[in-house]
């Protein structure tokens, strides 16, 4: 009888290991991601809904280059040479425009080093809307502190599968 | 169906080493230092082997650049237990570093010793950090790496061709070694496309492939050195 119990334990050993590993993974996922704080409380909603701008008006690289690009102060300067509203954020932008200093915007989405991702290919050739990966940014009244849509390799692969795009490893991993 | 391949004219190769250096810079290949290199741990994806024939002063020297031959019947892909090295639809033999477990079966299987193992984390001096190629992953300790035919360039080339709504041209995708060769000894292109130079070159009477009898079907062809 004793032998049998030991044997059972041996068989379950692998399962136990798996459970511990899975638990650790779950814990890692549940741990709150590091909050990203922007230097100025940028309001996407005002720009996209009220001012009638489009994502690509400021993120100019999105259609024709690999990176979407974070707008430089010159892009802000085209509208914000003087104060129009009452918000403190706008006052800060106008001040930066006048002194010509770049605003140190923080990136929220960062493609890992081992992945090749081209915005041009996805937006222009693939006709994928910005919100598919970036979420409902036009509803944000204050800057996002984390990714609105979590993107993992399986997210990419699922979409590639649905659109019959190659899921060849070296297609993206260079 | 594309089939990327290379033809190297040994008549033209002077063994200058420009290709080896271009490859190092393009692919962020770490410098292991003289001691490790002496122990056979150099990480170069390309090397030039020099063959001496005859006795001094009548010596005939042939320089043979060696790289991954991206074999059609690649032995490395067959032994990988985790599918980290495989052949894709373009005929390129891919190496996925994040999947590699470092068992080195592929290194043992490769008859050309084209694969290198990372015995240490890449040692990059701080001042070189900003000079690394952002398009190529830095390999970590414990994984196998090899020449990729600069397939990151193919990703860029395909991307641009699609954006400009045209077919991929021969000049769009050229690996760093081919681009840097001052003697134009290396030619690269689609072996199955009659518009590409390599298509005709591979049928030349001087052509041979290394260890052809093994049946690995390498996609790098050499043009035999001939006395002029």
- What is the share of helical residues of chain A? 40-55%
Overall pLDDT score of chain B: 92
Sequence stretches where pLDDT stays below 50 over 5 or more residues of chain A:
none
Number of strand segments of chain B: 10
Name the helix and strand elements of chain B from N-terminus to C-terminus, one letter apiece: EHHEEHEEHEEHHEHEE
Query: Which pair of chains has the greatest number of interface residues, and how are they split between the two chains?
Result: A-B, 18 and 22 residues
Q: If you compute it from the alpha carbons, what radius of gyration of chain B comes out, rounded to the nearest whole angstrom?
A: 18 Å
How is the biggest beta sheet of chain A arranged? none
Order of helices and strands of chain A: HHHHHHHHH
> Which architecture of chain B per CATH?
2-Layer Sandwich
Distance between the termini of chain A: 55 Å
- Decide which structural class fits the backbone of chain A: mainly alpha
Strand content of chain A: under 5%
User: Helix fraction of chain B?
Assistant: 10-25%
